[in-house]
């Protein structure tokens, strides 16, 4: 267990003063826990990135490409994370990490708040920032910063902001692991560590523990390829593929409810899809290369009663893959007529931010109001 410094730091920023009206009274638990759309960051990334709004329910989208303009930020704003209807955003390219603005934004209500600066923050490196929000547990959220240690290059430190108390807490120094690949699910943050186990941080209890990796076949080598690692609908899913050879078939793992480990939830076979879309095959690559077939997993939507599916991106297209009958449906054609894999728009998992409609508040005080 890590220890938190209880000499908490009061916010140094004045609280926003405008109200959002009667929307505060709407129960956030009445919102859907499944995404109706995905924000896709359009490559290449720029100082002011644009996003494609990909509908998952078949409804047309009036404004498919949009920039984030909810706040007047001259540096531009980019999305870092989507968490149960709220977006964690950051201003771009300001001088010094500690001078950046971080925003919590609700795209449904078009409300946002700016995270206050801790009173004693010093210039240091931020390795990741994570929004921890679960409306089934609380209407409040926390934001976890993983930062470089003040005393050692081999240690890190957690800096945690609570919207309930509007205070910052600081952890004792923690081990240095790969904090770049992570997911938040049901009150806990999961990191893929160097030991091939998952490091789990229970946010409210402020403690770490390890969860084993699924068993990997011996012929996969030491480093399997992580194709997907994300939470949706309160379920954490993981997709690993062979790091030595190309694959058309793979498993989708789901975390056990007691957080004890993983089990195979779905089995995927992409043979039919690859046959229908020859542009998925990289002609310049060797058939044994792990990336011989071009695809990325954008979302795993586990809706048992309505039908669970996976959203794939293949060159120029977004595809819905049904786990039940292995049929594929075109969601959107980003480049009609594209036959050259190099000339097509490419989206990766890191470019995806699920959109879930909610009236959740973005702060425990009167909120900043846009428009």
From TrEMBL:
It comes from the Eukaryota. InterPro entries: At3g26010-like, F-box-assoc_dom_typ3, F-box-assoc_interact_dom, Gal_Oxase/kelch_b-propeller. Residues 68-254 form the F-box associated beta-propeller type domain. Pfam families: FBA_3. PANTHER family: F-BOX ASSOCIATED DOMAIN-CONTAINING PROTEIN, F-BOX PROTEIN INTERACTION DOMAIN PROTEIN-RELATED. This is F-box protein At5g07610. It comes from Theobroma cacao. The gene is LOC18605301.
